[in-house]
Amino acid sequence: MVLAPNVFLGYRIYMSFLITVPPILLLALGLTLVIAAGEIDLSFPSVIAFSGFLFAYLFKTYELTWLALLAALAGGALIGFVNGILVAGIGVPSIIATLAMQFFWGGITTVLSGGLSYNIRAVKETALWEVFVGRIGVLPVQSLWVLALAIFLWFLLNRHRFGEHLLFIGDSAKVARVVGIPVNRERIKLFTLMGVLAAFAAVLLTLENKNFFNTQGQGFLLIALAAVFIGGTSIFGGQGSIVGSFFGAFIIVMIEAGLVASGIQGFWVRAVVGLVFIGAVIFHLLVENPGRLAALRRLLRRDG
Amino acid sequence: MVLAPNVFLGYRIYMSFLITVPPILLLALGLTLVIAAGEIDLSFPSVIAFSGFLFAYLFKTYELTWLALLAALAGGALIGFVNGILVAGIGVPSIIATLAMQFFWGGITTVLSGGLSYNIRAVKETALWEVFVGRIGVLPVQSLWVLALAIFLWFLLNRHRFGEHLLFIGDSAKVARVVGIPVNRERIKLFTLMGVLAAFAAVLLTLENKNFFNTQGQGFLLIALAAVFIGGTSIFGGQGSIVGSFFGAFIIVMIEAGLVASGIQGFWVRAVVGLVFIGAVIFHLLVENPGRLAALRRLLRRDG
Amino acid sequence: QSSDKPLGDGMVMYMQMGGNAGDGATLARTTGARDAAKAFGLQLIEQYSAWQPETMLNHFREGMAASPACIGIMGHPGSDAFADLVDEAREAGIVVTSGNAPLTELYNKHQAGGFGYAGVDLFTGGYITGKSMADQGLQKGDKALVYGLLSEAERGQSTLGLKTALEEAGVTVDYLEISPEVNSDSSLVVPILAAYLANNPDVKAIGTQHGGVTAFIPKALEDSGKKPGDVVVGGIDLAPATIDGLEEGWISTVLDQQLYLQGFLPVTQCVLSAKYGFTGLFTNTGSGTVTPKTIGALVPLIEKGIR
Amino acid sequence: MSGSEYRDVVRLENIQMHYGNVQALSDINFAVGRNEIVGLIGDNGAGKSTLIKIMTGVERPTAGNLYIRDKKVDWEGYSVGRAHELRFETVYQEKSLGEKQPLWRNFFVGRQITNRLGFIKVKQQKQIANDVLLNQIGFRGAGIDADSPVAQLSGGERQGVAIGRAMHFDSDLIVLDEPTVALAITEVRKVLDFVRGIKESGRACVYIEHNLAHVHELADRLVVLDRGRVVREIHKGEMSLAELTSALIDLQHAKVETAEAGS
Amino acid sequence: MSGSEYRDVVRLENIQMHYGNVQALSDINFAVGRNEIVGLIGDNGAGKSTLIKIMTGVERPTAGNLYIRDKKVDWEGYSVGRAHELRFETVYQEKSLGEKQPLWRNFFVGRQITNRLGFIKVKQQKQIANDVLLNQIGFRGAGIDADSPVAQLSGGERQGVAIGRAMHFDSDLIVLDEPTVALAITEVRKVLDFVRGIKESGRACVYIEHNLAHVHELADRLVVLDRGRVVREIHKGEMSLAELTSALIDLQHAKVETAEAGS
Ligand SMILES: Nc1ncnc2c1ncn2[C@@H]1O[C@H](COP(=O)(O)OP(=O)(O)OP(=O)(O)O)[C@@H](O)[C@H]1O
Ligand SMILES: Nc1ncnc2c1ncn2[C@@H]1O[C@H](COP(=O)(O)OP(=O)(O)OP(=O)(O)O)[C@@H](O)[C@H]1O
Ligand SMILES: [Mg+2]
Ligand SMILES: [Mg+2]
């Protein structure tokens, strides 16, 4: 950012972030809850494709708008629910279950769409478009939606019974059972919620692009996860930072753009992204616990 | 397999698997140890690229063979060691550290190679080639190497002090410390070992293809992880099945080849892979614990 | 000698399709190959490699193990990587033919055995796009961004061609590499290009040979406050969004590889060579660009995944 | 609820429990009366914890029936949450606190004070938790309050929190699995007083404890488990502490002998 | 090794321990003589476990020195593994068994019997582990042997394994943090006999226990910790059990009063 002042002084670049970040942010927020509960969801890229397809198909074929939105959300809920059943009901570890489901639903989307992408330019004329991805002045409306959702999810995680249950489940599922939390039902709810959030991200993305791409969502896997981790949510569960993920999503999107704007040469960008990523996380850790550096020095001599 | 008998009755397809599987198997074996210790490594795709580059570059430019092999292994060890320092020394959770390092080393490889691929057909004339990827009759030699390594790693995990330490660390790092295991040093060793195994996979791959591709390895991420999980190693650490990963690697490679050969339409393959994957894991679970199905039924009424 | 049975009856062909089932740079090839397979009555087995060269090599090995009549390969791994494998396949009597990226050495060696090529010369394709951009009003000394995949040796050729053509026209070229995330999900390109445009307000042209990226350039321009025609844009492939871009004037020129032919022709080559021993044909499937003026007629076909 | 008519707060009938090949409980019958303190004693591994886990909804037995307030309860619908609703409160032997969570959450988890939408009244919860910590449990440790995460507590402090929680939710049946473990003398006294208080306020308690002096003094009835079976019931006053102790030691010797004879 | 000349097995000097803002220990001096059994007592959260964790290499103090057999030890090189090498053996209050691992691994982990290449002699380890389980600890539980994973054990059985392990590696200093917790009567007796045996065989022991009857009987010297400080040392015979008990209770009352006066 420091390297390219003229870029980051203009408002336009921020408006562009306010368009790109919302879908990623939605995913990151959902993942924050999932990870806080000690689980993981890798199936969301396929929700982005599947729900995006449902929406675009219903709009293009039947000119449905609000119903298409509902169908897309229901599709996401279905995928999430299936994940939940696999994880909570059958006991498949979530990393495996959701990975398999990513394959499955991604494949189903390709089959259903016949591999085609859809152009839904006409959607721009609908009220739906104005409500979700229109502009207030220069401000993209979707940024307000995700802001509201972020606040809601903060309260859900930190102030609601459901969120507390997730935190305890992530802390120790055994303890959670013993204190009377209906562990499995909460897990099913959690995955379903994640599916709905991903589906909403899919709709925002499809509306904004006015196009459904058969492969949409696949590039979001690492980015959304990285946003959560950069934000300081621990992979070990029992703790999740909605605020951290909020900023994490912006940071991860801005890193590459910032590097590009700063004029770093093509091939270097990715290596520098890796460095910035690890640097941010280490900075986090050291701020929280300055003893680490000493520990590191000690380690290289003899281990504790 | 049932669907394409003519393909799977011939010996040739198996010889082809004995070429395709070894690099994936090496990765899966290494990951089994890593996951048994409660960690994860996502950086190996970049080791495949980086070490492959070192090997190909040194061979092409200086006609080094054994030294090029050594350099490639050393490169893998370096990446693994850095991972270890980040995880054990600084305390970055391994999923984040290795993800960032995947970006970083992948980027570095692109920078170093200038984005070029290298053709090293001349390597076929070297003793190195014969020793590692030659043929004994129709049998690819690399299959013997990985078989030997699999046996060695089985003993390392199940019968060696180091393996026992990994199992305890994966079970609970706190307990491991308290019983006197040098947790962090063992973790560094573990990641270094994983780096070396991935580097060896890189060399086998590069030798067999007689080419270094700048993007090589990226397709292995999910496949190698899936092999480990299909093999029954638990994501929760404290337990790892080398034998399971061994068969898992074959199964994962054969699933797709089998589906393709069976003439299933291209679009369906991905969806069916997902189904077979989840089916295999669930089958595993139900065989181990037949009570699950009852639990599932119960769940849908009221939660325990 | 003809009979009631179609020409390819009883033949099996393994064919590498490129990326992932249904992605923009792959779909029309699949459609073409399927149509040809239906027409000739042969059994087509599709292999998708996510553009990974080492996967293409493995797919070849697996295909060879099934002893099919023919194998259609992608050129990405290069002649050297394929050389021994193709030799082996030829010895086993399997016809091999290629597409998308030329394997000149193998073509020269095995042409007599039916080794053909259907595709553009990647460098030339890029070069044509660059020329076409230069023709749309770029001046000496203008600044252009080339956004490509030089890190992938074969696919990078088209980027190189693009860059060369622009440089020959006296344009100053900035180069940016496409990251794997953008490669698999092009919507992520928008903020990156927006940032570039903000930092380089004087840029006169953007060129890419990535189909997904092409489709999103109009959005990036719009978000950056540009008007259609402010920046000369050259791209590739006719995704629905790209057509929009052309129609609205955001995109100035697009290379049409005619991917359908890259599917149809290798199957044809296979049947003809396996049945009648014809030699390999070298077909350039695309030397033309589509501009806002010529797009109209193509739209209906594109929506069916043909063009 | 406690006003309705019933004889036993809880009754288990012909309970069997297998863990894989291990038979932890065989054919157990066990009941707790309305205003009764039942001491459950027996060797390590006798099955005491397993029994109370079944009783309070943590585990589901392989066979057997459960009656609560004389009404048969379906296992399908039974869980720890349900037991809470039925006014059963338990201090488990295994850890039952979320390590990373602050005390105020641990205190109320599963029984949060919420508004109608399920949002937690944090202030109120903290206040009550602080009150219980300071006044009922009597923590004076450096810097421990409702916001401290459990991970910072000493072994005894954790045990104290678990018991304080049970004390607070004043229930009809209180199940204590070795509650005085890890507690210092004064705290032990508090727990014993608490158990006496249960009796006085007309409620029931199941009390597991290896310290015979404690159970002997408090329990109305002692149930002795041995290798998954109820081998003896002893009513208050039937035996002196010394007699009880030697009876139990005899039991163990007998066991060793039969085991040796059997092998 | 035990033949060499030294006065104290271990000595801690001016130990400070902060956890963030919490000061768990302030300026502790604590030594254990060659053939001495030291009882460490005090309230919950007084700092007993913290002190022995520092002594045995689990935690590193914020300040202070460590002397082992009168030689100063550098904290940098000190760890649980090192303490084992120096023949210190500890039973910690927190769990110290790998849940998913079989008992034979838990028994020897960190001190495996291996060949020169580091490969474990499994048969030998299992044999010894089985022997200790059956004969020394005296498990008679259904189906518990060297191959059982810890997750299957009852609370007391786990404690038994941890102590059995400490008994087996016959060391110069044995540190026991509430070892009788969760054990049944006969097992408790075994532990007490074990501690007596330590003394008889000329070795040393630090013994933390809330049951004053036990420590009072066994310890040569009692050290009383209170809120991170050593507040009292009591030598054998100096006080009767009853005096000791009331002294400790007085101490706590005094504490409450100063705390209240201070606030
Ligand atoms: N990891 C930690 N972080 C913060 N505070 C801690 C930590 N470990 C211990 N403490 C605090 O230090 C103090 C001493 O704890 P310690 O475990 O040594 O007590 P103890 O004397 O063993 O008590 P008990 O008899 O209950 O086992 C306690 O107040 C505890 O809250
Ligand atoms: N999850 C489990 N899997 C297998 N066996 C188990 C499991 N839980 C308990 N057991 C076995 O069941 C028996 C009874 O265990 P339980 O915990 O009920 O004993 P307990 O009477 O509470 O003992 P303690 O006094 O030591 O706490 C033990 O032999 C134990 O090994
Ligand atoms: Mg118990
Ligand atoms: Mg303690």
From TrEMBL, chains A, B:
It is a multi-pass membrane protein. Pfam families: BPD_transp_2. Keywords: Cell membrane, Membrane, Transmembrane, Transmembrane helix. The chain crosses the membrane at residues 12-36, 42-59, 66-90, 96-120, 132-157, 188-207, 219-236, 242-260, 267-287. InterPro entries: ABC_transp_permease. It comes from the Bacteria. GO terms for cellular component: plasma membrane. The keyword Transmembrane applies. The keyword Cell membrane applies. GO terms for molecular function: transmembrane transporter activity. It is found in: Cell membrane. PANTHER family: ABC TRANSPORTER PERMEASE PROTEIN YPHD-RELATED-RELATED (PTHR32196), RIBOSE IMPORT PERMEASE PROTEIN RBSC (PTHR32196:SF72). This is ABC transporter permease. It comes from Pelagibius litoralis. The lineage of its organism: Bacteria, Pseudomonadati, Pseudomonadota, Alphaproteobacteria, Rhodospirillales.
From TrEMBL, chains D, E:
GO terms for molecular function: ATP binding; ATP hydrolysis activity. CDD domains: ABC_Carb_Monos_I. It holds the Pfam family ABC_tran. The keyword Secreted does not apply. This is Sugar ABC transporter ATP-binding protein. Keywords: ATP-binding, Nucleotide-binding. PROSITE patterns: ABC_TRANSPORTER_2. It comes from the Bacteria. Residues 10-252 form the ABC transporter domain.
